[in-house]
């Protein structure tokens, strides 16, 4: 039986965080698939070149970052202080909780990518009252948490790349939602922060 020590605790915590996060992601996709809903809309359907390119890069960034995270965990590349490791575990765990709440609150309106050929409902209740993009915020917290736990320059580059692509995707989605929902979404934007915060 493998003994958990102070040196291996970050590895076990990080593995648990990753497994829980992506179990929520894949589990929700499978639940929606049974209902005939295609969750993964990234780089699918008729989209303008800028949006299609953004979604291809986003998909590439997020998938490759998971690989770099897994390798960093297995190699235990951590040289962080105890305080940074604790902060990393806290941020990663917060990402899991926020992501779970976000996809649950969205019900069958959750999509990965912009669904140009599907009708969805604007969700502004629950966690969406304090964040317009809690699922994207959860990804950022996951990336930052694992980066604090297993800092290395390759992981830093991939994490920043993914976070940048997520931000560009948010901006594309904002344009889309404004077109689809009009004044309803504009009013929502005025009162709720892009990442977090209730605005005046």
Question: Could you explain the architecture of this structure?
Answer:
The mean pLDDT is 92. The protein has helices at residues 9-34, 49-75, 82-106, 134-149, 153-181, 183-191. It has 200 residues and is mainly alpha-helical. Helix 3 (82-106) packs antiparallel against helix 4. The protein is built from 6 helices and no strands. The protein is globular and about 55 Å long. It has one domain (9-108, 120-191): Up-down Bundle (Four Helix Bundle (Hemerythrin (Met), subunit A)).
Short note summarizing the structure:
With 200 residues, the chain is mainly alpha-helical. The protein has helices spanning 9-34, 49-75, 82-106, 134-149, 153-181, 183-191. It has one domain (9-108, 120-191): Four Helix Bundle (Hemerythrin (Met), subunit A) (Up-down Bundle).
CATH top level is: Mainly Alpha
Mean pLDDT: 92
Q: What is the CATH architecture annotation?
A: Up-down Bundle
Instruction: Give the low-confidence spans.
Output: none
The assigned structural class equals mainly alpha
Helix content: 55-70%
Gap between N and C termini: 55 Å
Major sheet attributes:
none
* Shape call: globular
Classify the fold: give the CATH topology.
Four Helix Bundle (Hemerythrin (Met), subunit A)
Total domains, how many?
1
Strand content: under 5%
Count of helix runs:
6
Order of helices and strands: HHHHHH
Radius of gyration: 18 Å
Number of strands: 0
């Amino acid at each position: 039986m493998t003994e958990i020590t102070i040196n291996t605790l970050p590895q076990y915590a990080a593995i648990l965080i990753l497994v829980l996060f992506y179990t929520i992601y894949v589990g929700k996709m499978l639940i929606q698939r049974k209902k005939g809903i295609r969750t993964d809309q990234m780089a699918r359907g008729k989209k303008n070149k800028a949006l299609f390119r953004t979604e291809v890069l986003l998909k590439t960034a997020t998938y490759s970052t998971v690989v770099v995270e897994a390798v960093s965990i297995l190699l235990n590349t951590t040289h962080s202080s105890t305080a940074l490791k604790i902060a990393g575990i806290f941020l990663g765990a917060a990402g899991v909780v926020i992501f779970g709440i976000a996809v649950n609150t969205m019900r069958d309106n959750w999509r990965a990518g912009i669904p140009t050929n599907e009708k969805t409902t604007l969700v502004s209740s629950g966690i969406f009252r304090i964040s317009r993009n809690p699922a994207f915020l959860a990804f950022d917290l996951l990336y930052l948490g694992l980066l604090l736990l297993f800092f290395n320059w390759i992981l830093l580059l991939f994490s920043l790349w993914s976070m940048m692509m997520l931000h560009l995707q948010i901006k594309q989605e904002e344009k889309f939602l404004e077109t689809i929902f009009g004044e309803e979404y504009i009013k929502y934007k005025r009162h709720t922060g892009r990442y977090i915060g209730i605005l005046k």
